[in-house]
């Protein structure tokens, strides 16, 4: 259903809302809405253009909100009508938050609901929408960034008949490796990033130690009333895998302290900046299902927490450098982040859940006939390159661009060039 159409310079934006089953195996049961925004160049608004569907990274993150014709979108609009999909539970789709989940009577009911928000359900939504927009036999192209690439890989495995071509950036997932393998690899990458960070900003070794020592001996409250603990501060390494991640962290740390009425104290502006650097509270699917995206007929059992014990470098001890953690999720977050506290029991149920369906049919991928290309970033902190290369060996016909020129956020940082190169590869022009 079309809702609104808006016009910006160089863009025509049309909002769509679709009603889909919460559980596609039970189409007559509870229904949810999925929002998507169609984008087309004004000069081509009335043409019969091929569709390109964008799957956002995450899990649990909404599609980008266009404000201008730039980046990868600018390149895509030269030949496609783009559909920006708010994956179920995000953005203007039926949202998942601590507020909406409060309608359930028990944590088990919350957990049972949340089981339907992984890549398999997202792809089934996309297929539902494809049939509605293009008809049963219509096919479209897909672009997946990061977790969006996990969705595209599942799409290639589960519903390749709906695809004309597939493009993946920084998101070729491990097909069969357990979550423990993922975190062993990514912890090593995070350690490397920490070392590079301190090489660039050596003064931050002492600065980070000073902040941790202060937080350990003072009760510092964030603007929402939560305590800023040393381990919560340590999560700032979340951004180290982006091209501007070191700078985000350094510029925050350099203004950590101010002289107050009683002497040195944590700067209010630092607190606000730290709060704004995370989206765990506004996008709880990211926290609750982050490990579940790797689970196939097995439970995660807080894999990141367990594997961390193998890396004592991350322990916060006096005299040691503070090594920041990456995008790992820990059970203590459901105690220290206020909007996550009501979801703690549901998260524990899901961490112990062993019934996750398989996400990838390797035999289907090995006989793939959908043209596909993927950008793999050599030092990717979030999606291990070695595992992506393993996966590519099991997708028939895929073309890889392996590069150390970019970090994980290449599509955001230099999207016009990145997508242009991948499209040239896809169409046999490079």
Could you characterize what this model shows?
- The protein has 430 residues and is an alpha/beta fold.
- The strands form two sheets. A nine-stranded mixed sheet has the order 1-2-3-5-4-6-7-10-11, with helices on both faces. The chain has a two-stranded antiparallel ribbon with strand order 8-9.
- Helix 2 crosses helix 13 and helix 3 packs across helix 4.
- Strand 4, helix 1 and strand 5 (81-85) form a beta-alpha-beta unit.
- Helices cover 36% and strands 16% of the residues.
- It has two domains: 2-94 and 115-175 and 360-426, Rossmann fold (3-Layer(aba) Sandwich), CATH 3.40.50; 179-351, no CATH class.
Can you give keywords for this protein?
9-stranded mixed beta sheet; two-stranded antiparallel sheet; 430 residues; Rossmann fold; globular
Domain tally = 2
CATH superfamily of the largest domain: Alpha/Beta hydrolase fold, catalytic domain
Oligomeric status of the shown chains? single chain
Low-confidence stretches: none
- Summarize the main sheet: 9 strands, mixed
The strand order across the widest sheet is 1-2-3-5-4-6-7-10-11
User: How far apart are the termini?
Assistant: 39 Å
**How many whole angstroms does the radius of gyration measure?**
22 Å
| Helical residue percent band | 25-40%
Supply the CATH architecture of the largest domain. 3-Layer(aba) Sandwich
Write the layout of secondary structure elements.
Layout: E1 2-8, E2 11-21, E3 31-40, E4 51-55, H1 71-76, E5 81-85, H2 107-114, H3 119-134, E6 140-145, H4 147-158, E7 163-169, H5 179-200, H6 203-217, H7 230-233, H8 245-253, E8 257-260, E9 263-266, H9 268-276, H10 284-288, H11 303-308, H12 333-336, H13 344-351, H14 362-366, E10 372-377, H15 385-392, E11 399-403, H16 410-413, H17 415-426
Parallel strand pairs: 4-5, 4-6, 6-7, 7-10, 10-11
Antiparallel strand pairs: 1-2, 2-3, 3-5, 8-9
Helix pairs in contact: 2-13, 3-4
């Amino acid at each position: 259903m079309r809702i609104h159409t808006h016009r910006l310079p160089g863009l025509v934006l049309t909002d769509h809302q679709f009603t889909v089953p919460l559980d596609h195996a039970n189409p007559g049961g509870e229904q949810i809405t999925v929002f998507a925004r169609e984008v087309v160049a004004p000069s081509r608004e009335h043409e019969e253009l091929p569709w390109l569907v964008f799957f956002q990274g995450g899990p649990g993150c909404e599609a980008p909100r266009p404000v201008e014709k730039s980046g990868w979108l600018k390149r895509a609009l030269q030949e496609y009508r783009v559909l920006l999909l708010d994956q179920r539970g995000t953005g203007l789709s039926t949202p998942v938050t601590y507020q909406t989940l409060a309608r359930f009577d028990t944590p088990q009911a919350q957990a049972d609901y949340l089981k339907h928000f992984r890549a398999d359900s997202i792809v089934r939504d996309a297929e539902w929408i494809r049939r509605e927009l293009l008809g049963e036999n219509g096919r479209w192209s897909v672009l997946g960034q990061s977790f969006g690439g996990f969705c595209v890989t599942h799409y290639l495995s589960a519903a390749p008949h709906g695809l004309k071509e597939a493009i993946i950036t920084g998101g070729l997932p491990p097909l069969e490796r357990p979550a423990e393998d993922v975190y062993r690899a990514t912890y090593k990458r995070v350690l490397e990033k920490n070392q590079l960070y301190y090489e660039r900003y050596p003064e931050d070794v002492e600065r980070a130690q000073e902040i941790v020592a202060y937080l350990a001996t003072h009760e510092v409250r964030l603007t929402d009333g939560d305590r800023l603990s040393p381990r919560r501060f340590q999560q700032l390494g979340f951004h180290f895998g982006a091209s501007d991640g070191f700078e985000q962290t350094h510029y925050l740390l350099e203004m950590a302290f101010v002289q107050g009425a009683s002497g040195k104290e944590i700067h209010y502006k630092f607190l606000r900046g730290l709060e704004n650097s995370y989206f765990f509270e506004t996008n709880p699917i990211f926290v609750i299902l982050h490990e579940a995206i790797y689970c196939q007929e097995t439970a995660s059992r807080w894999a990141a927490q367990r594997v961390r014990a193998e890396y004592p470098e991350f322990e916060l001890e006096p005299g040691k450098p503070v090594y920041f953690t990456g995008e790992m999720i820990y059970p203590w977050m459901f105690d220290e982040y206020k909007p996550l506290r009501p979801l703690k029991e549901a998260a524990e149920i899901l961490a112990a859940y062993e019934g996750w369906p398989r996400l990838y049919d390797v035999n289907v991928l090995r006989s793939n006939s959908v043209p596909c290309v993927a950008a793999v970033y050599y030092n990717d902190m979030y999606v291990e390159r070695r595992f992506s290369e393993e996966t590519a060996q099991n997708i028939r016909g895929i073309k890889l661009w392996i590069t150390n020129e970019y970090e994980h956020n290449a599509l955001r940082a230099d999207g016009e060039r990145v997508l242009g190169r991948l499209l040239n590869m896809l169409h046999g022009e490079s």
